[in-house]
């Protein structure tokens, strides 16, 4: 199964448009959004093209293809605008050989890892910094941020295809980080 990951949209319409364009081209089965969908939060500057209600409208067009978790900037008011659930602090996707534990990263994440089996994947956002690596027995995957990248990285998203997790630059389309998760 091919999955596309986006995190930390923070209400940026241009970033949302680019994500949806790439999602349509990717043939991915699901678009996994790892939190912070509509609001920028008090610690971040306004992202380019900040338009939360328009972001909601565009994402709602793809509601049946979205799996999402709640970020620290998401609220129940945001849920009122979105036609797909975002209030769960975590989700799980079960694959034949492993599970993907999806979270934003502010409650459970790299510093507070939930109980996972060897070979499972912890997918999170929150830091806005891309990660694709094995730490101990589990894989850590952070697609970075599509709107407010940090740590000197460019805006990015993620893909899971053929047992490889990749973080890809949103505009340049080059691989920033990757890790094979072969059984």
Give a description of the structure.
The chain has 183 residues and is an alpha/beta fold. It has one domain: 4-Layer Sandwich (Purple Acid Phosphatase, chain A, domain 2). Helices cover 16% and strands 28% of the residues. It is built from three helices and eleven strands. The strands form two sheets. Strands 3-2-1-9-10-11 form a six-stranded mixed β-sheet, with helices on one face. The protein has a five-stranded mixed β-sheet with strand order 4-5-6-8-7, with no helix packed on it. α1 runs parallel beside α2. It is globular and about 40 Å long. It is an enzyme of class 3 (hydrolase).
Described by strand count, sense and barrel closure, the largest sheet is:
6 strands, mixed
Q: Count of helical segments?
A: 3
What class would the helix/strand composition place it in? alpha/beta
Q: Give the proportion of residues in helices.
A: 10-25%
Give helix and strand order, one letter per element, not per position: EHEHEHEEEEEEEE
Query: Any idea of the CATH class?
Result: Alpha Beta
Output the CATH topology.
Purple Acid Phosphatase, chain A, domain 2
Strand order of the largest sheet: 3-2-1-9-10-11
Number of strands: 11
CATH homologous superfamily? Metallo-dependent phosphatases
Number of domain modules: 1
Write the layout of secondary structure elements.
Elements: E1 3-6, H1 13-26, E2 30-33, H2 52-60, E3 66-68, H3 76-81, E4 90-94, E5 99-103, E6 121-123, E7 131-135, E8 138-142, E9 156-161, E10 164-169, E11 175-180
Parallel strand pairs: 1-2, 2-3, 5-6, 6-8
Antiparallel strand pairs: 1-9, 4-5, 7-8, 9-10, 10-11
